[in-house]
Specification:
Blueprint: H1 11-18, H2 22-33, H3 36-41, H4 46-74, E1 76-78, E2 80-100, E3 102-121, E4 124-132, E5 137-138, E6 140-142, E7 149-151, E8 158-161, E9 167-170, H5 173-200
Parallel strand pairs: 2-5
Antiparallel strand pairs: 1-6, 2-3, 3-4, 6-7, 8-9
Helix pairs in contact: 1-4, 2-4, 4-5
Length: 202
């Protein structure tokens, strides 16, 4: 597979930093509520917990951005040779499902599946597992040098290759509402850390 280097739009790291993540907010809620009794007895631990949440959250986001960056810069569209689908459970979850380049996102109630996709890179077989609705025809990007690949449904933004072989990245209007919520969440954690530090450490 020939390696092509494409410019990655600035919107990619912006989206990765600011996109709203329901799972992240749930983890933050649990981290603040569950050890609440301990924090009442040891208030000096509150700044450590809050700073830790910010550090872990940002590290996870930046790791995701780095992965997207490598795939978008040097990844190529691959052809899926085979698909094996197995049931992974039932529930109500927010899913993204790709048909070609087009991705539909929303809440889904019902059976969730794992689709194991097989594709070739330099005549070597590789696999990618996509969880959600049964895989149909979503575009998959794979890196020739790294053992990494993603279906376009895994990105929190819509992408496609334009006529000049450049990436086109777009987000929905709801993204900006989520970005505001994410900013408020992290700002609250930082403010809480500063306030609790001033009251318990100084």
């Amino acid at each position: 597979m020939p390696t092509t280097s494409r410019r990655v739009p600035l919107m990619v790291p912006i989206t990765g930093t600011l996109s709203w993540d329901w799972r992240e907010s749930y983890v933050v809620l649990l981290a603040l509520v569950v050890p609440g009794v301990v924090l009442l007895h040891f208030p000096g631990l509150a700044p450590v917990l809050l700073i830790g949440l910010v550090a872990v959250g940002l590290a996870r986001r930046f790791r995701g951005i780095a992965r997207w960056w490598h795939l978008l810069r040097s990844g190529e569209v691959v052809t899926i040779d085979s698909v094996e689908t197995t049931a992974a459970g039932n529930g109500t979850v927010r899913l993204a499902h790709a048909t070609g380049w087009r991705v539909e996102r929303g809440w889904f109630t019902g059976e969730i599946t794992d689709s194991v996709l097989t594709y070739l890179v330099d005549d070597q077989p590789r696999t990618l597992t996509v969880r959600g609705l049964p895989y149909t025809s979503g575009i998959v990007l794979a890196h020739a040098e790294r053992l990494d690949a993603l279906c376009v449904s895994a990105f929190p933004f819509d992408i496609r290759i334009g006529e000049s072989d450049r990436w086109s990245v777009s987000v929905t209007p709801m993204f900006w509402a989520g970005a505001a919520a994410t900013t408020a969440l992290y700002a609250s954690l930082v403010a809480g850390a500063v306030i609790s530090m001033r009251h318990s450490w100084f």
